[in-house]
Design brief:
Length: about 240
């Protein structure tokens, strides 16, 4: 077994893993701080992730994918850390977070809609002003009425992100459209997507905390819906629509 500690969303986590590749995967987050909590991966955790992936593929009518045990261990670590972080006012969220001039914007949508592509358009539009925080699974921590978005090792297939954090100004739900149109929406209109895109508790005792965190997320940031195509002008519409408040 491999033992190491990482810093995740402002908390130190001791990890006991089966594969050295898991420590390499987390290398940008490794620290020597005293742990706030610990996670340990067993073979049953890896098998759980394998069966979960197969179930999801069947439900979506996809060909069942095959993943290595080493890869599945990284997903098991992610899941266990996220479960503990409910106790520290933090959610794991599926989306792309980009910071512009020190302020964060999160794009979320159904898989394949174009979150990463839209974030790339922002980087092309804004150049050095734009910094990728995380392109897949950021942590969102509720703190003093604010939402702080943190990078994580789980930053998408292109590895776009950094070990940093930024106050979150807005969450934007993307939809495909022939024209680029953005509108501000209220939290109730965003709730279904927030539930779908955040990791829900495996432990039922965490559900009250989870629902409270969603409520605090709803109060701590603005929400938008963007119908967009993949033209560079989509970035202009969304940035101008969200950055001036």
């Amino acid at each position: 077994m491999i033992e190491f500690t990482i810093r995740a969303a402002g908390r130190s986590v001791s990890i006991t893993a089966m594969y050295e590749s898991t420590e390499r995967f987390c290398k940008d987050y490794v620290c020597d701080a005293k742990p706030d909590f610990a996670v340990r991966i067993e073979p049953a955790d890896i098998e759980f992730e394998r069966m979960k992936s197969k179930r999801e593929d069947r439900l979506e009518g996809k060909r069942e994918r095959s993943f290595s045990d080493a890869y599945l261990e990284t997903i098991a670590v992610q899941r266990k850390i996220a479960e503990h972080l409910f106790d520290f006012d933090t959610l794991l969220f599926h989306g792309s977070v980009i910071a512009v001039d020190g302020v964060g914007y999160l794009f979320t949508a159904q898989s394949g809609t174009g979150k990463s592509t839209h974030a790339r358009l922002w980087r092309e539009l804004l150049g050095d002003r734009a910094v990728m925080i995380n392109d897949d699974k950021p942590f969102l921590r509720m703190e003093n009425g604010q939402v702080i978005a943190y990078g994580s090792p789980w930053n998408g297939k292109h590895g776009l992100g950094c070990n940093g954090c930024v106050p979150l100004r807005a969450i934007c739900i993307l939809q495909r459209g022939s024209e680029n149109v953005i509108e501000e929406i209220d939290a109730s209109q965003a709730l279904a997507m927030l539930i779908q895109q955040s990791q829900r508790p495996a432990d039922k005792s965490h559900y009250p905390q989870y629902m409270e965190l969603l409520d605090r997320l709803s109060c701590g940031t603005a929400f938008y819906r963007l119908a967009c195509n993949m033209d560079p002008s989509a970035a202009v519409v969304s940035y101008e629509g969200m950055s001036v408040r």
